[in-house]
């Protein structure tokens, strides 16, 4: 299992990759990162690959040298779910889901309806699954 602790620079690079609809070259990642120096991107990419967050999914020729295409090995949703599970295990206690959702919904008043709608849709799906089984 991948340890979910990303530092701020690693998270910045992962956000760029999660927001891309295709695998990316390091040079593309460099142009889209804001808070990471160009020289650091290569080192961080190597570290993320070693830790299993990203993988090489192809190679292309860039000018005269080969370039590797990188893609995340897990989605942002999978990352957040695993991070929540890791925090739960580390603290060895239950996270109050009702309290967590309440905090998210009340903290971001501009997106209240978006969060509520997602929770309502999830509950309806769960109820339908129960009826089918």
In CATH, the topology of the largest domain is named Arc Repressor Mutant, subunit A
Task: Tell me the number of structural domains.
Answer: 2
The succession of helices and strands, N to C, reads HHHEEHHH
Coarse morphology: elongated
Could you name the ranges where pLDDT drops below 50 across 5 or more consecutive residues?
none
**CATH architecture classification name of the largest domain:** Orthogonal Bundle
What do these coordinates show?
This protein is α+β, with helices and mostly antiparallel strands. It has two domains: 95 residues, Orthogonal Bundle (Arc Repressor Mutant, subunit A), CATH 1.10.10.10; 38 residues. 60% of the residues lie in helices and 13% in strands. Strands 1-2 form a two-stranded antiparallel ribbon. A hairpin with a 2-residue loop joins strand 1 and strand 2. Helix 2 crosses helix 3. It is elongated and about 60 Å long. The mean pLDDT is 83.
Comma- or semicolon-separated keywords:
two-stranded antiparallel ribbon, Arc Repressor Mutant, subunit A, 133 residues, elongated, 2 strands, alpha+beta, single chain
Question: What is the gist of this entry?
Answer:
This protein is of the alpha+beta class.
Topology:
Blueprint (H helix, E strand, L loop, with lengths): L7 H11 L7 H7 L5 H14 L2 E9 L2 E8 L3 H16 L5 H11 L4 H21 L1
Antiparallel strand pairs: 1-2
Helix pairs in contact: 2-3
């Amino acid at each position: 299992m991948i340890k979910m602790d990303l530092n701020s620079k690693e998270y910045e690079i992962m956000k760029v990759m999660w927001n891309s609809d295709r695998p990316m070259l390091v040079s593309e990642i460099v142009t889209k990162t804001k808070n990471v120096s160009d020289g650091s991107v290569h080192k961080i990419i190597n570290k993320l690959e070693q830790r299993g967050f990203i993988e090489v999914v192809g190679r292309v020729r860039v000018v005269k040298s080969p370039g590797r295409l990188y893609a995340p090995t897990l989605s942002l949703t999978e990352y957040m779910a695993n991070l929540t599970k890791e925090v739960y295990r580390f603290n060895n206690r239950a996270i109050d889901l009702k309290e967590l959702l309440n905090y998210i919904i009340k903290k971001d008043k501009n997106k209240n309806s978006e969060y509520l709608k997602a929770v309502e849709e999830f509950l309806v799906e769960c109820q339908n699954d129960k009826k089918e089984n």
